Every structure is written in C-alpha cells, then in structure tokens.
Amino acid sequence: QLQLVESGGGLVQPGGSLRLSCAASGFTAQSYTIGWFRQAPGKEREGVSCINSSGAFTNYVDSVKGRFTISRDNAKNTVYLQMNSLKPEETGIYYCAAAHYWRGSGCYTEAYSRWGQGTQVTVSS
Fold first, then answer.
1. Are 45 and 101 in contact (CB under 8 A)?
2. If we measure between CA atoms, which residue out of 108, 115, 82, 113 comes closest to residue 4?
C-alpha cells in the first residue's frame, strides 16, 4: 500500500529555486517509477520529470532540461525535484505520482495510478 505526500512548495521570485520532496510510505514504495507533474488553472496536467525505481533512468520535459533535476533516495523513501531558474509560467500545483512501469519516451499521466495531494508553487515578483 503506497502513499505519497508532496512538500516544499511556496512563493519564489523569478530566477529563484525550490526543492520539492515526495515522501513515499508502504513496503513496496521503492519498486515504483515516480513522476512529477504540474497543473495550472484551466490547463491540462503535464509531466515535468520522472525517475525509474532504481534511479538509473530519468526523463524531463524539454522546457526544464538543464534547470531541473530529479533524484531519489530510496533509503529515505523520498524523491526530489530541484528546480532552478524558475519562470513565472511554471506556477502551478505540483504533484508526484507512482507508476508500475518505466517508459523511456516520457512521463505520461495515464501511466500513473497513485497520486499525492499536490503542493503549490508560485513564481512571481
């Protein structure tokens, strides 16, 4: 039984940084691919980044490559998203979610079966 809880969101100025955490619980937590997704009001939820169960493979949406880094510490049952040089258009609710299988082509919402509650990220001056 897997549960996911996001934290680390808040208000940051353009160009600033935030580190989001996704804490997982349950005895099977380390066997899952974990993804980060974001959703702005009135827009479809999109995949930002994802990481396979061991941490050996990662994907990023093109718009965040070079600025965001996903990582996981399986000993702590936690996945992180380090976000640098944040832009106002990246404001939204950020969710982490778990999937059973890794897909090298990208992070697709339909592949993820369990979701956290989300954490708000606001990028504004």
1. no
2. 115
Task: Write the pLDDT tens digit of every residue in 5-62.
Answer: 999 999 999 999 999 999 999 866 678 999 999 999 889 999 999 999 999 999 999 9
Cα–Cα distance, 109 to 106 (Å, whole number):
10
DSSP letter string, 72-125: EEGGGTEEEEEE-S--GGG-EEEEEEEESS--TT---GGGEEEE---EEEEE--
Residues 6+ apart with CB under 8 A from 38: 45, 46, 48, 90, 92, 93, 94, 95, 121
Q: Tell me which amino acid residue 112 is.
A: Y
Which of these, 47, 58, 52, lies nearest to 95 by C-alpha position? 47
